[in-house]
Amino acid sequence: MRQSIVEAIDISATQAGIVLNADQKRLTERLAMLAQPDGRRLRARRNQSSRGLYVHGPAGRGKSWLAQAYFDEATVPKTRVHFHNFFDELHLRVHDSRDDPRALESALSELLGPSRLLFFDEFHVHDSGDARLLTRLLEFVFARQLTVLVTSNYAPESLLPNPIWHHTFESGIAMIKNHLDVFHLDGPTDYRTQSPHHTTGFASGKWLTDSAPGSYPSADEKATLTVRGRQFAALAVRNGQLWISFGQLCDSPLSTIEYLYLADAFGDWVVTDIPLFDEVGREAQQRFINVIDILTDTDTPATFISTHTLDEFLATDTARPDAFRMASRLQLLRG
């Protein structure tokens, strides 16, 4: 099984025109050690603490791609979750059973089902409330001896970097270090900046600095979107394509719940009037980062229209947490 995992990843890389570097090959070998569908590897390690792998490093180094290639090939019962999607589902299920003292445990059982492998992509923590839920999640999966695969831009000790709240996730960090092997995937190249493939999904999108005025929606095309009883304005909805301004998308009190719904409801987006990143407030910055996360993870094509070039926009990137990941993902777009 180990060799089949390595071969499958090599084949996927070749088909994608990717040449794995030395660190990526080492990670491939380490991923292959996780895969034993009959549990022999897990039983062999039962007296050891490690129950999986925590892969961290800068954006665009191939962490998610390699982990996904392994996940696709693994034959054990498995679940892949992404931060935003997972917490949306978890909050909904807990809310529906809020009178049950075991609501969180029941929700986690429903979400993970019979899985023996959990792949948690883009793991990050910036909120003390999320830290408490993630700690409970880690307790749940390690108590049930699931194999856990995590990708993150943050080393375990750098999670929840805000010094005011960092202590609220110290127990979670300790569990990660005690139960997972930590693998640092680094390198000088952000491969998203070199991707030649712009044919499908998010990578087929564009960043435009001009547009024919006639293509913009007229005032009578304005639309009202309803998400779980809340209403939000948009410029237009055209044959399944959502037109929405940066202000409507990021200055309004929308959350990842609304963004996930919109990505599911509309298979193509046009986001207009994008200002320079440092010209908007911290909340609008974080919402735009979340939008890019969700559009990338759902592989939704999008056109971004601004009076500024993408390079100009990214030049005003700030030290805001996760802005570096947004910058890397926007590099997938065509000019």
Automatic annotation (TrEMBL):
GO terms for molecular function: ATP binding; ATP hydrolysis activity. Keywords: ATP-binding, Cell cycle, Cell division, Nucleotide-binding. The keyword Cell division applies. Pfam families: AFG1_ATPase. GO terms for cellular component: cell division site; cytoplasm. One of its GO terms (biological process) is cell division. InterPro entries: ATPase_AFG1-like (IPR005654), P-loop_NTPase (IPR027417). This is Cell division protein ZapE. It comes from Gordonia aquimaris.
